[in-house]
Amino acid sequence: MQNLIHQINELSSSFYEEVVTFRRHFHQHPELSFEEFETSQFIQDKLTEFQIPFTAGYVKTGIVGHIKGKKEGYGPTIALRADMDALPIKEDSDASYCSMNDGVMHACGHDVHSAALLGAAKMIKKLEDEFAGTIVLIFQPGEEEHPGGAKLMLESGALDAFKPDIILGQHVLPEMEVGHVGFRPGMYMASGDEIHFTVKGKGGHGALPHKLTDTVLTTAHILTSMQQIVSRNAPATIPTVLSFGKVIADGATNIIPNEVVVAGTFRTMNENWRAEAKRRMEEIAHGTATAMGATVELDIKHGYPVLHNDEKTTSKAMGFAKELLGAQCVESMDLRMTCEDFAYYSLKYPVCFMRFGVKGENSVIKGGLHTPKFDIDEKALKTAMSNLAYLALRFQQEM
What's the pTM value of the predicted model, to 2 decimals? Predict the structure, then answer.
């Protein structure tokens, strides 16, 4: 174990500056979901340079590489995943590596994830004599856009030839100090569904409400009643959030519009309750609209599932991380009501999805995730690639 830690630390120090250049290249050339063609080609070129075999073209831009250990005997198959896509956000930064694609930005750290996985891959390749199994490298498109690149990669058969014993993934965390990592066994991240509905009726003059259907008031009643799904129907043990961020009633001070358009999000941590809650939304929307003389068109877009970290895998990963980084740098994470398409892997394989800190020594966060000012302290790359490589190799030793 101590020898492996020494090897990992030496390799990460040796490769760090190169991995920073990878990250800056990705950051300067961000591409939207399922359009990561230049990013994919860059990764393919690096894997070729590292002499790591791969297959490209899954879901257009996805790549699956693999490193077969040269040690004799049996070894497990450990998969490591990074996402590649950026967001439709205009970057607000004076960094030398600022986005060159106007209106597109790596505001969620996927540039960091891909660079760290390339770094980990290069490290693991250098240590291929140390293990007997296979380490699979998943460079995945489209995490930010439904139906999610993870789902499509699985459906395309990208992992069928490998059948991983476990899959590890990681994500930046702006609030966490550089050098720290975080884990949570079991239930970790919420499902995410989009709620869209349009209330329709006969609009008219606001001074003559008896001659029209008040679509605005009907919408208000639907929104208020739906909140009772959370406050009165949700089991107290299941975290649940229902939020509406878009309400368009394009009337005027004295005009009730013919229709009101609403959009929101529903998040929870239990698949059975998730289905029941959406059934209740249907009942409330249609029942309330009918009672008030209106109609409603409701469209619930089924999003990412609940992300459940395999307890055994995650607990072992947490222990391995403490070996490498020290117990003081390994944190226990709270539940998160955000969602992540890595959850699709958890439906088929034991997984561990972890966090790593990107907040610098000055304790200043330049910007949160999905904001124009988001950036990281690049020293986080060393932790991210070292931890990923070390965990993969320790699981090779102890599975």
Answer: 0.94
